[in-house]
Each structure stands twice: as structure tokens, then as C-alpha cells.
Design goal:
- The chain folds into 2 domains: 221 residues, Spore Coat Polysaccharide Biosynthesis Protein SpsA, Chain A (Alpha-Beta Complex); 100 residues.
- The protein is built from 13 helices and 10 strands.
- Strands 1, 2, 3, 4, 5, 6, 7, 8, 9 and 10 form a 10-stranded mixed β-sheet that branches.
- The longest helix has 33 residues.
Length: 353
């Protein structure tokens, strides 16, 4: 007998989240929409996360799968890729292991996907969920003060024009995280989309998804409760060397991934301006984080660490050329701003007649 294909595959990369993974799974059990499968991929947790997930097998009545990795990757990207490969649903929805979703989340997104025949349903808003606040079925109704995003507008497709989409990305008008999107599984496999094993892996994935999914639907719904936890992977304190390694690795991997992605897209491979713009968006986002290190540590210490990171990259000529041109541009902009400031100061200090 052929197994029924679920409408939605929920993928949860898991690492040391014994404190929250139960609440995450409870929010899925509370869904008004039940045609789903849940795939949890544990990345060698050292706490009791796996035991907590196993305790939910019976409650999910066969809808919950737990996959264990052989080696810790240090990043949600590889476990998420494993989850994608094991998924069978028509659509895929990603969740962080410490987040939750509202009771009607899957129902809202799936009905919109079917109504508009959308490749991606992109929720423009979400709830910020404090780490010290316990989730319950009624939480979403009292979290309006944490709501983030633009004013509520009707569901609408994004233009299929690639240059217009790159402009939207450049203006920072989209959330580039994965957990605000319901994605047609076929789109991921057709375009061979994967998550890199580096920081901001969801941003690389989302940018490429945004450029290759034709029917990209923006909706005003807020269904995800994002837990702001200072001890999570993205917020936890690490040594300078670990920070630099993670961001330098992500920078290199992201750049290389974009290069391969462009080679598969006819339009992008022919438009260097579009390619350049998208990579610049990525570099700019990475530099936002790297800049924080430069404010805290001596330049010589950082430069030495970054040099070692790039020395380990076999083919880095394209990336280094891009970074060189960007740094020159940044210097030119800084010179122009300084020149304008001096001119303004001279105008202010000039004697009046």
C-alpha cells in the first residue's frame, strides 16, 4: 500500500534545545491543520534534547521522525539539508528548535498556497517571543506588542522581474529567515537549493529562492513566534577566533554558493550587474557583523585571524577581487562624505556680511 504524501513537511534542525524543543513540538500538536509530517534532525546534541523528542513519538502517531547525524556540523544548515532530503510533503516549512507557531499557522499558509497556487508563501510579519516567557496555546493573542513588520496589506505576488526582485532585496524589504515561509518542495529540488554550513545560511538560501521561485506570494500573516534567546547559536558569546572563523567561513561559502547558483540561471549568468548587486547584498550583511568585532578588538589581531581564514581557501581570487573593489568603493564614499562635511563646516564658519 502506497503511503499517503503529507501536505507539509516540517523540518527542525536540533542542537541542545532540551529546554524549548518540547514547547516547539507542542505548538505543532496544537495545529488546526493536521496533514503534516515532522522531521527533527539532531546535530549530536550533548543534552537531553533527543530524549525529549523521543517522548513525543506516541503523541504524533507516526508523524514524527528523528534523524541523528554522525558528526556535529556546528550550524543548522547541514541538518536542514538532511531534513529536506528525507521530506515527502508537497510543501516544506522550517522551524527553529526553540520557536513555536500559532494554532492556525499551517492552515493559514497552506490555504493561501492552494488558493494562489504559490511556490512560496512569505509571511511579512512575525512575533518576537522573549526567552523567559513560556509558550501556551493562547500566547499569540497576547503578544501583539512584539509584532514586527510593515502595515497589513492583502496577499500579493512579487513581480517576476529579476532586477525588480534584486532591488527589493537591496532595500531590505524582506525577512531573509527561513521560518516565515511555506515553500513548495518541488522548487527546492528543481533549483538544487541547499543551505551552506556557515553563518547566515538562511539568507543565502532565501535570496536564491526569491530569485528562482516564480509565484512568490507576500502575505500579512504573522504565524511564527521567534524566541529571542541570548544563549542561542546566533546570540551566544564565543571567543574572537570562533566568531571570525564562523563569519569568514560563511562569507566564503556564501560567495561560492552564489557563484554556482548564477551559473545555473540563464538570466543571471548574462547580467553581471545583477550578479554583482546580489553578492554585494550578501557581503554587506556579513560586514555588519564583522564590523562589530572591529569595534571591540585591535585591528592587527583581527587582520591576522582573517588572513589565516582566507589562506585556507583554495580558490579565492574572485572573492578577493570583489572585496577589493567594495573596499575601494567604501573608501571613496567615506572621502566624499568627509569632503562634504568640511565644505559644510567652512560654510557655517564663514563670516557673514
Amino acid at each position: 500500500m502506497q503511503k499517503n504524501i503529507p501536505a507539509v513537511s516540517i523540518i527542525i534542525p536540533l542542537y541542545n534545545a532540551e529546554k524549548y524543543i518540547g514547547e516547539c513540538l507542542e505548538s505543532i500538536l496544537a495545529q488546526t491543520f493536521t496533514d503534516y509530517e515532522v522531521i527533527v534532525v539532531d546535530d549530536c546534541s550533548t543534552d537531553k534534547s533527543v530524549e525529549v523528542v523521543k517522548s513525543y513519538f506516541e503523541k504524533f502517531s507516526g508523524k514524527l521522525r528523528l534523524i541523528l547525524t554522525a558528526k556535529n556540523s556546528g550550524n543548522p544548515g547541514p541538518p536542514s539539508n538532511i531534513g529536506i532530503n528525507f521530506s515527502t510533503g508537497a510543501y516544506i516549512f522550517f522551524m527553529d528548535n526553540d520557536d513555536a507557531i500559532t494554532e492556525t499557522a499551517l492552515e493559514e499558509m497552506f490555504l493561501l498556497a492552494k488558493k494562489f497556487d504559490a511556490d512560496v508563501v512569505h509571511c511579512k510579519r512575525y512575533y518576537r517571543f522573549p526567552a523567559d516567557k513560556k509558550y501556551s496555546d493562547k500566547t499569540a493573542r497576547v503578544l501583539h506588542k512584539y509584532l514586527i513588520g510593515e502595515e497589513e496589506t492583502p496577499p500579493a505576488f512579487v513581480s517576476e522581474n529579476i532586477l525588480e526582485r534584486i532591488k527589493i532585496l537591496n532595500e531590505g524589504k524582506l525577512f531573509l529567515n527561513l521560518w516565515t515561509k511555506l515553500i513548495r518542495r518541488e522548487i527546492i529540488f528543481q533549483n538544487e537549493l541547499k543551505l551552506i554550513n556557515g553563518m547566515a545560511q538562511d539568507m543565502v538560501f532565501t535570496c536564491c529562492l526569491f530569485l528562482c521561485a516564480k509565484k512568490y506570494l507576500l502575505v500579512p500573516n504573522a504565524v511564527n513566534l521567534y524566541r529571542v534567546d541570548p544563549n542561542s547559536l546566533s546570540h551566544s558569546s564565543k571567543t574572537l577566533q570562533v566568531h571570525v572563523h564562523q563569519w569568514a567561513t560563511g562569507l566564503v561559502q556564501g560567495f561560492n554558493y552564489f557563484e554556482k547558483f548564477f551559473g545555473k540561471q540563464i538570466f543571471l549568468s548574462q547580467r553581471l550587474d545583477a550578479k554583482f548587486s546580489l553578492i554585494e547584498i550578501w557581503i554587506r550583511e556579513c560586514c555588519k557583523y564583522l564590523k562589530n568585532f572591529y569595534l571591540q578588538y585591535p585591528a592587527w589581531q583581527l587582520n591576522e585571524l582573517i588572513r589565516k581564514e582566507f589562506d585556507a581557501v583554495e580558490d579565492k581570487s574572485a572573492l578577493m577581487a570583489f572585496l577589493f573593489s567594495r573596499m575601494n568603493m567604501f573608501n571613496l564614499k567615506a572621502d566624499l562624505q568627509e569632503k562634504k562635511l568640511k565644505e559644510l563646516q567652512q560654510k557655517i564658519s564663514a563670516p557673514t556680511t
